[in-house]
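Page 47, continued from p. 46.
Same chain as before, 82 aa.
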Amino acid sequence: MAEHFLAALNLLNAPVLNNTSPLVKKGNNRDYSYEIWNTEDSIGYYLKVSRSGKHPFSQAPQIVGSFKTPQDAFNYLDTNYR
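Result:
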């Protein structure tokens, strides 16, 4: 049982797609959906945020910030989109 839990937990930290894709991770954080993307030159990351919930398509996704690591982007999301 604990082995299955740890395997599932490891999936949460895994990239969404393989390394050839610029999409690093996507998910939901409270009332928002997010995607963390690698820049075209592969030296940074940016965050794409949109509202989820009752009217998820009522507003276009916003591209927010420029980050050195995916963790920096996720920390920004966690701090600013509560």
